[in-house]
Amino acid sequence: MTAEIIDGKAFAARLRGEVAEQVAVLKRDHGITPGLAVVLVGEDPASQVYVRNKHKQTLEAGMESFEHRLPAETPEAELLDLVGRLNADPAVHGILVQLPLPDHIDAEKVIAAIDPDKDVDGFHVSNVGRLATGQAALVPCTPLGCLMLLRDRLGSLSGREAVVIGRSNIVGKPMAQLLLRDSATVTIAHSRTRDIEAVVRRAEIVIAAVGRPRMVTGDWLRPGATVIDVGINRIEDPEAGKTRLVGDCDFESCAAVAGAITPVPGGVGPMTIACLLANTLTATCRAAG
Ligand code: GUN
Fold this sequence. Notes:
- This protein is α/β, with parallel strands linked by helices.
- The protein is built from 10 helices and 11 strands.
- The protein has helices spanning about 10-30, 45-60, 75-90, 105-115, 125-130, 140-155, 170-180, 195-200, 250-255, 270-289; strands spanning about 5, 35-40, 65-70, 95, 160-165, 185-190, 205-210, 225-230, 235, 240-245, 260.
- Helix 6 (about 140-155) crosses helix 7 (about 170-180) and helix 6 packs across helix 10.
């Protein structure tokens, strides 16, 4: 079997287009322009790339983008003060503090300071609890993007066997909650799971979110499974004499067994910012009542 490639890049472009259309309607009919504030502390190169892309795509969607770049040595109190001001600013509908934060800043404390109704990352415990209890929540962007790709490919997820590999707060745990909300049968596998290959082999849906390059190989998969690869790992490529990006799945061997698979890059990655824009629109609409 050769898997169908799930084109996350094209799906994300469509989603951004839909968000832009709704932003235009909101402006025309209600005079409201959604505003997204992104806070970057320090100079982590990967974070700088993300923040630049977010800024560009926010503007392209017709939204306002407020960028706050702070030096790495910014005191925690100063960052908390900025979050407080963004919470109070009516032009700001969504707030994202880019992670990781420098070591001297307590990320949990910063996330807790964000107004849950502006928490477009969905990391605040109020949103985590709302998602877990089936209330209207802002949902973390990467798992939300994975869910959209799965629904698009499979239709109803009800009763399907899903295995999430990885138990992070940002991807694994919310992914499991979203699948459960769609009535899938959900297992979370992780570094302590016994015979992880056998657990993954049961799954019609596999979500790999561990951050270990090419960990999942084709022999782990049930034939025809739908595989969503969240991993973005930079590895040395001695043949090409440079580095390249690979996922948590070994693409060639997995694509030979799976029914469908997301590539890296061009799979889940572009969905994250598109879902961030969708969350900002959701937060704006909820704020407007
Ligand atoms: N760093 C890497 N991914 C993310 C994300 O989705 N949100 C935030 N805030 N920081 C990140």
